[in-house]
Design goal:
The chain has 152 residues and is mainly α. It has one domain. Helix content is 69%, strand content 0%. Helix 1 crosses helix 7. It is globular. Keywords: Membrane, Transmembrane, Transmembrane helix. It comes from Candidatus Polarisedimenticola svalbardensis. This is DoxX family protein.
């Protein structure tokens, strides 16, 4: 078997299973990380609590729970091909909030004297969401075709 044949088989495998793998990964990660929040087990809670004081209607703890259940809903919606559009819409709204600490808490999200190029661990945690947005674009690009229907 030559290298071109191996390469084609690998690319075919990746093309066949990649979108499904992304959707399932979204599901697992959003359900897992989301469910931690309402139970007070999320390491992101202090960052969320520092970001949400300006939000109306509820106190910070309630917002942490709401955000957590929102993330669980995103994860569940990604598990089913028919609800991917809902998942992406919910994710888009969630991502706006996720990036807020970069604006409202630069002293937490960037190393002192290194704004905007030296993120802290918290800043890196937020900036990596660019990859989540990119992966959501890939998944969203499949909603009008049947590329992963046989696997959902």
């Amino acid at each position: 078997m030559n290298i071109d044949t191996i390469d084609r088989r690998i690319a075919t495998f990746m093309g066949r299973w990649g979108t499904l793998a992304l959707r399932l990964s979204f599901g697992v990660i959003f359900i897992w990380f989301g469910i931690l929040k309402p139970f007070g087990l999320s390491s992101a809670e202090p960052l969320i609590m520092a970001t949400v004081p300006w939000l109306p209607l509820f106190d910070g703890g309630t917002w942490v729970g709401i955000i957590g259940w929102w993330e669980v809903l995103i994860g569940v919606a990604f598990l089913f091909r028919k609800t991917v559009r809902i998942a992406i819409a919910l994710l888009a709204m969630q991502m706006v909030g996720t990036f807020m600490p970069l604006v409202f808490l630069p002293e937490v999200t960037f190393q002192a004297g290194h704004f905007p190029y030296g993120p802290t661990m918290e800043g890196q945690y937020i900036i990596k969401n660019l990859m989540i947005i990119s992966a959501a674009l890939v998944v969203g690009g499949t909603v009008r075709n049947n590329s992963d229907d046989s696997h959902s």
